[in-house]
Amino acid sequence: MTPGADTGRLPAAYLVPGSSSFAEFLGAQAPELLPSQRALPSGASLEAPHGTTIATVTFDGGVVMAGDRRATMGNIIANRDMEKVFATDEFSLVGIAGTAGLAVELVRLFQVELEHYEKIEGTLMSLEGKANRLASMIRGNLGMAMQGLAVVPLFAGYDLDTRRGRIFSYDVTGGCYEEHDHHSVGSGSLFARGALKKLYRRGMTPDDALRVAVEALYDAADDDSATGGPDVGRRIWPTVGVVDAEGTRFVPQDDIAPVVDAIIAARADAPGGAR
Amino acid sequence: MTAGMPFYVSPEQLMKDRADFARKGIARGRAVIVLQYDSGIAFVAENPSRALHKVSEIYDRIAFAAVGKYPEFENLRVAGVRYADLRGYSYDRSDVTARGLANAYAQTLGAVFTQESKPYEVEIVVAEVGSTAEDDQVYRLTYDGSVADEHGFVAMGGGAEQIEAALKEQWHPGMHLAEALTVAIRLLGADPNGGEQRELSPEQLEVAVLDRNRPRRRFRRVQGELLDRLLSTEDPTADVPDADEADSARGDSTNPQTQRPERDGGPTE
Question: Total structural domains in chain B?
Fold first, then answer.
């Protein structure tokens, strides 16, 4: 951990030119810190907080990602204001579903991985490169996924070469698939995907895409008890990240409130659905 | 040496020979100047290469500048990035400090100097920008692992002594970036042997800043049009803009460990 604990000298491995991957370096220097290096007793299972639904929608020149704020543990709401959408670097976002603790750790590692590469190489990793790095981290978690601790992220980023937003989904074995137009993962994703199909249009503005993503989460929360709907009483709204040519940013909660209010108002007189 | 023991070299002589060797190697290279300005720390080097940097980002508030043998200081730079990222990942981002890194570098350079077949022919600066100029930290490390805590300015490499003597006259606290760069670039172009002054164009320079007003990653390269504007006497631009132009998004990137845009360790909403 500490460089050359006896002398304070940087260990020889630090000075060796070569890998620009932080995960590889961590695996060699401090393997106990790698999420994938942890072994669970076989046959054991445990209940840990689960994050739920992420919806992501492309628009002209970028992509919006929204996540609800709920984490559940069985029938208990473990957390009602959790953040599940993360900025991973200047031009990408990750949303997480599955075992919350592991997923957050994985995202942290992924964030350092991207920044580390950027600093060592002096250039940004390509969007496919980032998607593949994330896939290899998910693959490392397969053992734990088989014991019920799966992590299923959704990755979205702005492709600087083709100048558009792109979405990548994953399965628990680390399979990485490019999705077109929109996608959703997590327990409420079936309902969110249904909503996305009906609401999505090509060539939307960022504001349209934001509304579509938030409305898809609203539909997910309507039918999935593990997905948190907008919490009007506490004023807790979904986390929404946007990435486009300007980079990654989060939409301030004050700007999401009117969108949520508009969705609730539009549905107030139509209990069977919006339209 | 005594005639009877032709192979004996006194430790004093050995160290002196190694020091002379390293010093000669370092003095051959072009100088790098590190100087504080009102809203941060500036790094100015004569370096026509766009690929091989003398100045680099290490961590959120920490940057690295070096002169001497490129492969040697490049190894040290990479080691510093690894040290910082590993430490920040296992503790917290705020636990990565220039002081800790300077100490690790000092131990490494000191051990190489005494134990290996040849010392590193490098001199480096590790700088950390604080929330005020008083909190800025600038450490200069020499080939034998000596550390000096510097205030105001540092020059390393060829002609460093003359440059520092001139900076004593010309540098003062609270300079604008444009002013600081102009002074530094004039001194880089001066001939230490009293020859003719060279005019360095922006293409021959590597300029970067640690800007205390930026969120999280405070390191920024200053190049192209922005550098032209800063150096132009007609243009009123005196500092890097708060919102970036060329690499705008970086300012909005979030602290990976708190997920939110951040200044000085705490989330800002």
Answer: 1
Query: Whole-angstrom Cα distance, residue A89 to residue A151?
Result: 20
ipTM higher than threshold 0.85: yes
Lowest mean pLDDT among A153-157, B97-101, B188-192: B188-192
Does the beta-carbon distance from A120 to B86 stay under 8 Å? no
Cβ-nearest to B250 among A15, A90, A119: A90
Give the 3-state secondary structure of residue B201.
Answer: coil
- pTM, two decimal places: 0.89
Q: Has residue B140 got a pLDDT over 60?
A: yes
Q: What is the pLDDT of residues B108-119, one digit of tens each?
A: 999 999 988 899
Tell me the per-residue pLDDT of B164-180, one tens digit each, with 9 for 90 and over.
Answer: 999 999 999 999 999 99
The residue type found at B8 is Y
- 3-class state of residue A88 by DSSP: strand
Q: Is residue B1 part of a domain?
A: no
The answer to whether the beta carbons of residues A35 and A150 sit under 8 Å apart is no
Contact residues on chain A for B249, CB-CB shorter than 8 A: 90-91, 246-249
Topology (CATH level 3) of domain A48-268: Glutamine Phosphoribosylpyrophosphate, subunit 1, domain 1 (3.60.20)
Q: Do B82 and A112 touch (CB under 8 A)?
A: no
C-beta of residue B189 within 8 angstroms of C-beta of residue B198: yes
CB pairs under 8 A between A and B: 108
Helix then strand count (H, E) for chain A reads 7, 13
CA distance B136 to chain A (A): 22
Give the chain B residue whose CA is nearest to the CA of A28.
B86
Residue B152 lies in a domain: yes
Domain boundaries, chain A: 48-268
Residues from chain B contacting residue A10 (CB–CB below 8 Å): 79, 83, 104-105, 107-108
Q: Does B189 touch chain A (CB under 8 A)?
A: no
Domain range spanning residue B118?
A: 11-267
Side chain identity at residue B6, one-letter code: P
- 3-class SS at A54? strand
